[in-house]
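Weekly modeling sync, notes
Attendees: AB, CL, MP (scribe)

Item 1: holo prediction request
CL wants a bound-state model with flavin-adenine dinucleotide before deciding which constructs to order. AB pointed out that an apo prediction alone won't tell us much about the pocket. Agreed to run with the ligand included and paste results into these notes for async review.

Input as submitted:
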Amino acid sequence: MMRQFSCVSLLLLMLCVLMAALVRPSVATARREFRVAAIGDQGLDRSRRTMNILTDAPEMTAKDAEETTRRRMDERLNYRRFGTRKAPSQDHFGAWLKNATVVSGVRTPINGSLSPPPLAQDWTASPRGNSPPPTTMAAAALLRTHHHHHPCKPPPPPRAPVLCRATTAAGAAAAAALRSLAPPTRPELLSVDLPRYDPARSRPVDLAVVGGGPAGLAVAQRVAEAGLSVCAIDPSPALVWPNNYGVWVDEFEAMGLTHCLDAVWPSASVFIDDGRAKSLDRPYARVARRKLKSAMMDRCVANGVVFHQAKVAKAVHNEASSLLICDDGVAVPATVVLDATGFSRCLVQYDKPYNPGYQVAYGILAEVDDHPFDIDKMLFMDWRDSHLPEGSEIRERNRRIPTFLYAMPFSPNRIFLEETSLVARPGLAMDDIQERMAARLRHLGIRVRSVEEDERCVIPMGGPLPVLPQRVVGIGGTAGMVHPSTGYMVARTLATAPIVAESIVRFLDTGNGGLAGDALAAEVWKELWPGNRRRQREFFCFGMDILLKLDLDGTRRFFDAFFDLEPRYWHGFLSSRLFLPELLLFGLSLFGNASNASRLEIMAKGTVPLAKMIGNLIQDRDR
Ligand SMILES: Cc1cc2nc3c(=O)[nH]c(=O)nc-3n(C[C@H](O)[C@H](O)[C@H](O)COP(=O)(O)OP(=O)(O)OC[C@H]3O[C@@H](n4cnc5c(N)ncnc54)[C@H](O)[C@@H]3O)c2cc1C
């Protein structure tokens, strides 16, 4: 037995060596791109520059990229100033660059058929002749004296890691035809006159909010209302959020936000399969995203929030305050920093491997000839697969990793349709989803006349929480707040924003002794992720781990039992209102409701995730 075991191990080892040998050449030919941010603090030009270094050399390190940037920028500046690439003398010129840091390093494989991009792209300089923002000098000074630097991590890849799959030519053509109906994205802007942040300001703002999504603005408005100074930083502060947000009406009712809903359906429906449908007696709505953002911006402006239009590249912290360095060279000093950059996770740090599941969806807001759905019901989930031909490869793909249709029928001719993969790891490829959607629409007899807008949705779900606590405070997508089993987040974030805002205001209050730096951030994190919320999230991650293992039949059995639960259970689960003791009752109730096949499946597929959850809960308790 032992001998057999060692033979197998040897064989595996050999296979690994073989794989490594096979894989090496492709690593060697991978082209990497380093994006380097440089900040000068001498000479005439003190602004921040960024430079992209593209390299084929596998041995090039981030440090080398920084050095190359430093050299090239010095050369470039000398050329401009002295007409030579060599500095006339070190004394004359000195070290122009105080700091050059790699802000991202992306590995992109070379496509042999493409002509290689230029070795080094030009830097994006701030307009010449502009005097440097005063805070840039402060930035350089702080860079010398402060202890922790948090460069913005590279944004996650725009798509989730995707499954490889074969697509038929006809399916691909149908998906392409569907895509071709979508108009080019036209960013919609609010017409607001935004008070701007004054870079000459020397005193730190009480709170800098990085990211102007729902999460960031919800906190900004409340902290400003309490009389504190707030600066909100976003590359496009006036942009109307692009996502189509759906919520349960009771969630918005509880926050007094029903005026920010633009369509309400008194109930929702779920198709389990061709023979079984459920009616959910719970009103659902689409968020009026323009109205909601506009209302939040108005409240921000009325309470004195100032805006800075830029991307934050890095945070530098000292004991009592922080400095946010933006990609336009401006540095914003702040007592508290809130990262609300969604899935970009700009400043919040994670110390465990990030291994989320991905919800991937493709949605269109369309004008159609006709559709078969009741306009008084939103379609929450349609798991029918009769649109996929028996025995076809696409049907088999859907059997293994199912997708469902989510639809908001606004009228007999106007409808939002979204084909969704609830959760998969790796995430499903977008063109696979589009192919399934095209097949479904054809089968349902939905002829699309025109598409008003389309939406590509990639939501990381579950995965570890950020480091708790840490210096930068977080909220929303960046802080692990997406529901790990559903991908929903907006309502929960808006409901949590007052807690975070109140906590910042309370702990900053100098009249009450006031806290600063790490101590203040630790208190805020404690209120954002108290023990009961962390345990709740663990349970939701357990739910996600089970969903990841279910094929179409298993998923159908699961939702068949789920939506038969008492409403307080399924409402509470979807809206993050159940906590651990109730969640255990919910689990037992679900198990009791399930068919025998489903029970067996939950036991077989849920044992490992259950053990993982228990392990994590014990670890969390012992922290
Ligand atoms: C297509 C789609 C549809 C969704 N639909 C729903 C739904 O129906 N219901 C629901 O509950 N949830 C939904 N979600 C999930 C989640 O609620 C949203 O992603 C939500 O927008 C997250 O809010 P947020 O404020 O955390 O981040 P975001 O809305 O992503 O806002 C982040 C902001 O930070 C800015 N930013 C990023 N990097 C920087 C930087 N370095 N410096 C300064 N600013 C920066 C961005 O420009 C952006 O404005 C959806 C998500 C997607 C992608």
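Recorded for review: The mean pLDDT is 82.
Action items: CL to compare against the apo run; MP to circulate these notes.
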